[in-house]
Design a protein that fits this description.
alpha/beta, 18 helices, 10 strands
């Protein structure tokens, strides 16, 4: 048996692609961890069949050292290589693959999207929820069904079923709780369904919009940290209910990327704050120094920042053309920690904000 293993390893370097392919297949079935490094080298093989089986073998071998090389294979021009890389990453269960697999949900090949849905269900990471919801209406019906199964594993079964099966009462119930996530897949489905279903969806959207209205001021986009606003529904031919609007992020026009029930947002300038955000009792703190861009906030805290960072922050505010934010800056409360206080910083802040205090 040991000699057979050595022969297989040797065949990985054979000039004959069939021998390299067969060696990969056999080594994957044997499961000897000593095969990981030699097989991994074949992920760059010039023959697509060899790259394909190398991905599959590495999934069977189960080494987390292969995660990054397999992620690179998700960009392979051959879709079967991408497919096998997706399946392998699902088996390995490493969360480094979550974001790359989410990108695969938009792959042009239906079986790659199908495999990505299944893999994300296995990984169990909540980052995949919104992207999987979008796939419930995939043009490939089997991908939509696997997305539903994956969402059930992620604890979002009721929401996924309500969207996939157009359960009117359930969709409205989510909206009553301030959950806007059903909106995007319903709007997307309008483009691909028949007029009868379009009218049913539009009626649901009218009711969802009505139920979300009391929550609208507390809906925040988790990508841009901007408040929701009314967005015009795409012009879809239908016999009824034209010219509708729905609540969505002012920047990306998406309703699914939502943090609900956010009452206040504080822009924090703190070089010691390790996380981008912290949420406590419906109050969100966003570290501007990590986000490095403007967003919607009601107050400012300068905890630990140099003069350059503060001036850059203030210059961006001065050049901000967002009408929603422009009219609010002057009245915002701005707190400066004593350790960060300087006359130069205070003078610059008072040019913009009326309420500046040192704490």
């Amino acid at each position: 048996m040991f000699t057979d293993f050595d022969d297989m390893i040797s065949n990985l370097k054979s000039p004959n692609p069939d021998e390299r392919r067969d060696a990969c297949i056999n080594l994957g079935e044997i499961g000897n961890p000593l095969a990981v490094e030699p097989v991994m080298k074949l992920l760059d093989d010039p023959e697509k069949e060899v790259r394909k089986v190398a991905c599959k073998a590495l999934g069977n071998l189960g080494s987390i050292n292969t995660v990054e090389p397999l992620i690179k294979c998700l960009e392979d021009s051959v879709y079967l290589v991408r497919f096998n890389a997706v399946v392998a990453l699902g088996k390995l269960g490493d969360n480094r693959a979550v974001e790359p697999l989410i990108e695969c949900l938009r792959d042009g090949k239906r079986w790659v999207r199908h495999a990505a849905c299944e893999a994300l269900g296995k990984l169990g990471d909540k980052r995949a929820v919104e992207p999987l919801i979008e796939r419930l209406n995939d043009s490939f019906d089997k991908a939509g069904k696997v997305a539903l199964i994956a969402l059930e594993k992620l604890g979002e079964g009721p929401l996924a079923v309500a969207i996939a099966q157009l359960r009117y009462d359930d969709l409205i119930a989510f909206a009553k709780e301030g959950d806007s996530r059903p909106v995007d897949p319903l709007v997307e489905r309008l483009e691909t369904t028949n007029i009868k279903t379009q009218d049913a969806i539009k009626k649901a959207l009218v009711k969802i919009n009505r139920e979300l209205k009391p929550h609208a001021d507390n809906l925040l986009c988790k990508k841009h940290f901007t408040r929701f606003a009314l967005t015009k529904l795409p012009d879809v031919k239908s016999s009824k209910l034209r010219n509708l609007s729905y609540y969505a992020c002012r920047i990306c026009k998406k309703a699914s990327n939502v943090i609900p029930h956010v009452h206040n947002v504080t822009a924090v300038l703190d070089s010691d704050m390790s996380k981008l955000t912290s949420l406590k009792r419906n109050n969100l703190r966003v570290n501007y120094l990590k986000f490095n861009g403007l967003f919607d906030f009601e107050r400012i805290e300068i905890v630990k920042a140099n003069i350059h960072d503060v001036k850059l922050f203030l210059n961006r505010i001065k050049r901000d053309h967002d009408e929603f934010r422009q009219k609010r800056y002057r009245k915002m409360a701005c707190t400066v920690k004593r350790e960060c206080k300087s006359e130069e910083i205070l003078a610059s802040l008072r040019e913009i904000f009326e309420n500046v205090r040192v704490k």
